[in-house]
Amino acid sequence: MRKKVTVVGAGNVGATAAHWLAAAEFADVVLIDIIEGVPQGKGLDLLESMPIAKRDVDILGTNNYEDTANSDVVIITAGVPRKPGMSRDDLLNINYKIMSDVVGKVVKYSPNCILIIVSNPLDAMAQAAFKQSGFPRERVIGMAGVLDSARFRAFIAKELNVSVENVTAFVLGGHGDTMVPLPRYSTVAGIPLPELMSPETLAGLVQRTRDGGAEIVKLLKTGSAFFAPSAAAVEMTEAILKDKKKILPCAAYLDGEYGVKGLYVGVPCKLGAKGIEQIIEIKLQPEEQAALDRSAAAVKELVAVIGV
Fold it and tell me: What 3-state DSSP class applies to 18?
């Protein structure tokens, strides 16, 4: 029996996630949205592309949560996207209400699923989903670090004119202006990044990574990034479905790790069939730990507003 993945939200991020999933033949896909006709139309269009892609997966677009029953993984992209001049935090109260509604319905029909949260502000929405679902922390994961690290890797590869396959990078902390890219743990073919470029160039790439989402919002004018965020969620889904034990930077509920307790913050996690199977603690230098603490404090402010 094929695995089943539900994608909540049939906008750009959700529909593109469904496309990545189906194109890779990872699972049957259910695309659900409250807008009548949109998930059905996009789902049908995607289904009709499968003979061309030579992929045997079933794709269903729906407005009915009963169709999502017994999903293995549920990717939640539902919510209002950012507009120019709007921060992720501006979305807080609007998307909190949406998240609470969605998670309740998902859990009713798929009580054993693993949740991957993509909606912004990411860390606060992951915390809201964790509290609303009643799931153990291993089964509620925020997609942030995979995206932020991918942006950092793309900029590094472009700057050094090397294959993206040669570049590894870690970005920790909250998904926003306080994220913590770690050049010391970032490498090109095993060579530490600080040995390959000047501190000034490196600082510029770090800042561009922090501004990665805003840069795209400014260019698009009427939307936000969707190719890279959806691809990041699908990489996490693959690690879970295939029990890969893959170490990826994810937003996880910390219970004392890195000196943070009771908050979702981006850290390296081992993803497998059970969700987060291990939180990897790496030794941070004092300035890196201080940056992570500032990031955690920013997340704490947000979760305090919505009371989760």
Answer: helix
Nearest in space to 33 (alpha carbons), one of 90, 76, 95: 76
| pLDDT tens, residue by residue, 252-261 | 999 999 999 9
183 CA to centre of own chain:
21
Helix axes 145-160, 199-210, angle to 10 degrees: 140
pTM above 0.85, yes or no: yes
Low-confidence ranges of the chain (pLDDT < 70): 81-83, 86, 88-89
**Has domain 4-142 been given CATH number 3.40.50.720?**
yes
* SS3 state at 185: helix
- CATH number, domain 145-306, options 3.40.50.2000, 2.60.120.1060, 3.90.110.10, 3.60.140.10: 3.90.110.10
Active site residue ranges: 175
Angle between helix 122-133 and 92-109 (nearest 10): 40
Sheet containing 261-272, strands listed edge to edge, beginning at the edge strand earlier in sequence = 59-62, 28-32, 4-8, 73-76, 114-117, 140-142, 246-255, 261-272, 275-279
Spacing of C-alpha 28 from chain mean position = 20
Residue 194: count of CB within 10 angstroms of its CB: 12
The DSSP code sequence of 32-94 is E-SSTTHHHHHHHHHHHHHHHHT----EEEES-GGGGTT-SEEEE--SPPP-TT--GGGGHHH
Rounded Cα distance, 17 and 5, in Å: 10
Query: Contact at 8 Å (CB) between 241 and 73?
Result: yes
CB 32 within 8 A of CB 70: no
